[in-house]
Structure formats: structure tokens, C-alpha cells
Amino acid sequence: MIAIRGDRLLDDLRTLARFGGLSPGVDRIAFSETDLVARRWLVDKLAAAGLEAGLDRVGNVLGRDPAAAKAILIGSHTDTVPRGGWLDGAMGVIFGLEIARAFRESGTSGPVGIDVASFQDEEGTYLPFLGSRSFCGTLRDGEIAAARAEDGATLTAALAPLADAPAPFRLDPARHVAFLEAHIEQGPRLEASGKKIGVVTGITGIRRFRVTATGAANHAGTTPMAMRRDAGAALVRIAAWIGEAFPGFAAAETVWNIGAMAFRPGAANVVPGEAEMAVEIRDLDVALLDRMEQALAERVAAENRGGVAVAMVRPTVVAPTPMDPSIVAALSAAAEAQGHAPVLLPSGAGHDAMELGRVLPAGMLFVPSIGGISHHVSENTADADIVLGCQVLADAIFRIMQKMS
Amino acid sequence: MIAIRGDRLLDDLRTLARFGGLSPGVDRIAFSETDLVARRWLVDKLAAAGLEAGLDRVGNVLGRDPAAAKAILIGSHTDTVPRGGWLDGAMGVIFGLEIARAFRESGTSGPVGIDVASFQDEEGTYLPFLGSRSFCGTLRDGEIAAARAEDGATLTAALAPLADAPAPFRLDPARHVAFLEAHIEQGPRLEASGKKIGVVTGITGIRRFRVTATGAANHAGTTPMAMRRDAGAALVRIAAWIGEAFPGFAAAETVWNIGAMAFRPGAANVVPGEAEMAVEIRDLDVALLDRMEQALAERVAAENRGGVAVAMVRPTVVAPTPMDPSIVAALSAAAEAQGHAPVLLPSGAGHDAMELGRVLPAGMLFVPSIGGISHHVSENTADADIVLGCQVLADAIFRIMQKMS
């Protein structure tokens, strides 16, 4: 048993929230001056907890347990979206700091220690998951050179202040045995169920599609219905089919969305000559995603008639990342031991654990998001839920260590 | 029988097309210098044809037959949309000029003469149907003072160069017995049917609706389907219903359109929190328009559930304007006499005849639009079809005059 100290945990979280603090909310986008100052503060905190800590050339912070040859890595990210919340990412990092401290204070010793990481630019200001992908060695040649923020600023320029920092830290397969990440849920399920702990079964895969229709823009008063080539009507039929047919394909946790729809030229009295919509589907099951994509592609092809050309492209595919079953079991057992039956659920949002989970056994714990809100200054979680989450994560890590020894 | 001269008609049309001419196409927006110069040219042409002609303070050109106490008014407009075509409006005005000349040359005399008008700003650069509404006395107080072009320019400033012109010409109920307007079809029906003459049964009424939905924008990965308040999905269901149900309400000539659809915030991974669409319906039959509006309102109200507020407003109502049955009969008989069975059809687009038809017996003749195109530099009609249209209009006017005498 490792007993964390809730007061210290909350103090550190609140201190970190002052870097870029908006009260409420935090603006600490990757590579901003506040982000780098916060990362250096974290290095000092990790060092004070007895870890060998540093900031590498891509902005990753890593603290290593100097007494252990193997380690469980705990981490998340300390960068935020613009005008974001104080917990998204930060909470998982400070959980790592607190658990490393509590582990050391407990006098527990064994072959497996605790390392702590804050990965850079999880939020994708320049390149989503830059830090975790650098750490896992999965960045492709040229990705850093090509990456730009929305305002046009290059990642290369953002990296310049770190030119003298150590070479990028890398996952050490001989050392790192597992990755654990705690995070706010960013959804409404825990709050709606009245439960305090979510254990993530996997991070869903994403298929994102752009469906376009090209017909002919015509005067809506003078063009008889039978002579129209209405691009908008074609997409409405496909969108309505999605609403009616997708529930028949879906598993309990499948989600989909038509997030964007636009008709052009977009005037009340002009038959739409062009139309476009964005569709996405998320699930853990690749075979199910394949079936839904296939059905959508067939429905799109069937609409390709009557002088309207309908086409579908797939700009985004993210493979699902299942969490490690033994870590899921350890997190669940630790929640039960604290008197809290866990909710097992997929993560529909991406996390650093998605990148780490592809190369290491990984697990994630969720705490409730008040109102399901995140990426907003009002993002919050009850203090007691934050403390409980950290204690459950500490217990789970203790259980994983016991299994290993 | 009044025999028009096709060569002279085409010459005048081509001369007029040089004012603001783009070759092809014409840019002669209301109150531009080219518009006013073209209107002064028209005054001279009408005077040369023996009419008492002038340009009034709102930009209307009127030529009056000095020998007649009563008159059939022939007209349309000589202003265009930006980068528009050479026939939209201009053709109907030059038909009037040619028929007035041909009438005079024919030596025909009787109690009813021919007046010719070019109304100002039919296209609504500042105020749609400004000229015909001024002529009919249906402008409301303050409309001129409030009217602005899209670029912010005021109608008041546009009127300044005409400050010394005569007071606005007015419809004279004791004089004007009928209004006749010839126009390009601006649609595909004549071309598709292989017919040359369209006789307009009426100008359709328009009901335009804005349907809005307000739900909640949420993360499309973390928000379960059952917990969403998806504004976009609500509008898709209504739009799909329109496509399925409206044909059951519609008469043969009814048209409707969903011209605009937008989801906000409009990102692939965000459930739409707000959505909006523009719906319009056009028909000659007010009772049918009422039934369709009622059915749409009920369908919209039925979607107002599950945490999504759906509402409908009606920013635009235009009453239908039936054409005068005896004028429809005269135009049809004149077409038959020229060996061309007419197509009887409603006008789904607005015209000056809509304003005049509310206060005078009115009729419209259409000639084919090549490719159904208008409001574009490529707008065109075969020369032979233009000449035929003018001859049919002249014959119809002769028939109407004979009935009156």
C-alpha cells in the first residue's frame, strides 16, 4: 500500500495552474514561455522527489527513479489548448509526481521503480502527440520540419529555445515495463452514473470521412424539381441514412458524428451546386469500423446518380489502442478496494497512452469531469475525486509491482 | 397585324448591350454611370419613335404615346446584376420600343396606344423592384431612406444625380389598361421541351423559412450517442422529411429548395451545438402554400425534443401574382398564329410584372434561355427566338387592342 497525500497533490496542481493561469482556466500552449517555465518547474519538483529529471530537446520532461533498473512510467502532458482547463494533462503528470514521492516515502522497495513524464504538445498546437511519439520513436522523417501551428509558426522555430537541451529521451524497452495515465474523463458518463473511477478498456479508433457532392447550382424558382442536380439533397439523404442505419451496425460504445455540413453557394433561392459533410466513426473494434465504413461507402456510391457526383475520401484513420488487460484488472481491483466500483469504458478522445500503448502495456484511469466539460476554462473535477483518483492509481501500481516481484 | 422588324430590334438590343458591355455579358447595375447613360439613350430612342419620353427622379424611363388617351404599357428593366447577361430585362424594354415603332409605322390607329417603360433597380442592387413599385405607388414610407447596397452605399446617394429630374412617373388608372412584359425564361423548360414561346400563368408566391436548432456542442468521441443534444441531426431529419413528404403535397409546378445548411461549430469531432437551414417553397396557389407551410411547421415542432430546441421563422412571404386570363389567352393565340404552340408555365422568378400585375391586368411572355442560364455573362437566346418572341408579343397586343375597340 502506498498512501498518497491529497493536500500536497492539490497544492502542486494549483501551483502548476498558475503558469498561464487565467483564474479560472489555463492558457499554456506547447512551447510558449509559460509552458517551458512550467516544465522547468516540474523538473525541479521531480528532482526534489528524488528522481533524475530533465527537459529534452523536444520539450519532454522525464524523471527517472535512480534506484531502479525497471520502472513503471506514469505521465501525461502539461501543455494545454488555448484558454483551456487546469486538469487536462496536468492532473496525470502531478499524479505521477505525488505517487513517486509517496512511493519513496513508503519505504517500499523492489525491482521496479517509478518514472514520471510530461510529454510535449499532446494538444497538437504544432504536431499532436509530438512528445509521446518522440519518446516512442514513431515520428516519421520530415514531420517535425513540416509541422506548423494554425497561425503559420513553424515547429522548428518553436524548438529553437531547446537547442542546447539533451537529445530526446527515449522509451527504454529494458527498463519501462508499463505506462499508466490518469486523466479527466472529458465526457459525461461518470457524472451521469454517479461513479468516481473510470477504467479505460481502450482508446477508440477513428475513421473520419469527407463526403462531397457536385451537381449544378440553379435558380430555385425557375428550375423544375425533376430537372435539378441538387448536391444538398443528395447529402441530406446520406446523412438521414446514417442516422437510421448506423444504430444497426453499432456496438454499445460505438459513436459517430456528422460534425460539419455546408451547401454552396448557400442562398435560399439557389439549388445547391456543391455540398460537403464531415462524418466520423469511433470504436475499439476494427472489424466493426470496417463494416460501418463499407456500408457508408456503398450508400455514398448509391447516391452517385441523377447528375450529382458524390464522392467520399478518408482523410483520417487512427487505429484503436486496447489497454493492457492485466492493468485494467489492477486498476479495477484498486478502485474496488477503495470502495468504488469502476466504470469500464473506452476513451473516445486521444491521449498519450494511445502512443505509449502501441509499444508498452498501458492503462488509463478517468476521474469525473463536472458537466462533462473540457478544453474550456470551466473544466473541473471535485477535489475529493482528484485525490481518490490518485490513491486508486497508486494502489493499482502497487498491485502491478507486487505481481512483477 | 403589326409587323415588327427583327433586324432593327436586334441592332438596338446589341447597341444597348454596349453600355456596360463585357463581351460577352453586361455590367450595368442600377444607378451606375453606364445605367444612367443607357437610360438616357433609351429616352432618345423612344422619342425618335414618336413617344413623349423622359427619365424620372427614381431612374424610371417612360415613353407615352402622345396620340392616345389609353395605352397598353410594355416594359421591363435595363439594369442588370453585376457581371450579368445582355437580355435579362433589356429584351423586354427593346421589345416595347420596337413594337411602339412598328405600331406607328403600321398606320394602325385606335383608342389605345402603346407606352414603354424601363423600370429602375429590378435586380435589387439597392431595393428590388424600386422602379415598378415607385410607378405603382406601393413603396412604403422610409424604404428609400433605409435602402443600401451590399457595399453599404445608400440609395439616397445613388439618387442624387437625378435630383433635378421630373417627379416620379406614376401609373395612370385612367390611361393604362394592361401591362405586358417579355423576358428570357431563366430556366430550362422551353429548351428542354423544344418549344419557343412560354406564356406565364402567374408569378409564384414565395414562402421562405429559416429553421434553427440549438442543442449542445460536445466532444464527439467522449459523448455517448444517447447523451447528445445534436442540433445537426435534428435538421437532417427535418430536411430528409422535406425530400420525402413535399412531393405528396406538391402540384405539378410546385418547387421547393433547401438552399443553405450549416452546422456550428462545424468540426468533424464536435457534436453540432447549433444548426441552421434555409427552406423555400414557391407556387401560384396560396392554399397549397398554406398547407405545405403548416405541414413543415408541424414537422419542425415534432423535432423540438430530446434537449434540442428547434424553431422556424418566415423572413419572406411574397404573394402569388396571377396573370390576367384574357392576356394569357391573347398571348397563347398569338403564339399559335405564328405556328408555335405555347408552353403555359408559372414564373418562379420575380419580375416587374409581379408589381404591375397587382394593380393592372398583366401578362408575360418567355423566350428560351440557352442552357437555362441567366444572371451570368453567358446568358443568351437564339436571335430567331428573340425576333419570334417580339412578333408574338406584337400580335398579342394587336389582339388585345382589337378586343378593346
TrEMBL record, chains A, B:
Pfam families: M20_dimer (PF07687), Peptidase_M20 (PF01546). Zn(2+) 2 binds at D88, E123, H375. PROSITE patterns: ARGE_DAPE_CPG2_1 (PS00758). The keyword S-adenosyl-L-methionine does not apply. Allantoate binds at R208, N269, R282. Its cofactor is Mn(2+); Zn(2+). It comes from the Bacteria. Binds 2 Zn(2+) ions per subunit. GO terms for molecular function: hydrolase activity, acting on carbon-nitrogen (but not peptide) bonds, in linear amidines; metal ion binding. Keywords: Hydrolase, Manganese, Metal-binding, Zinc. Residues 202-305 form the Peptidase M20 dimerisation domain. InterPro entries: Amidase_Cbmase, ArgE/DapE_CS, Bact_exopeptidase_dim_dom, Peptidase_M20, Peptidase_M20_dimer. Zn(2+) 1 binds at H77, D88, H183. Homodimer. Belongs to the peptidase M20 family. PANTHER family: ALLANTOATE DEIMINASE-RELATED (PTHR32494:SF19). This is Peptidase M20 dimerisation domain-containing protein.
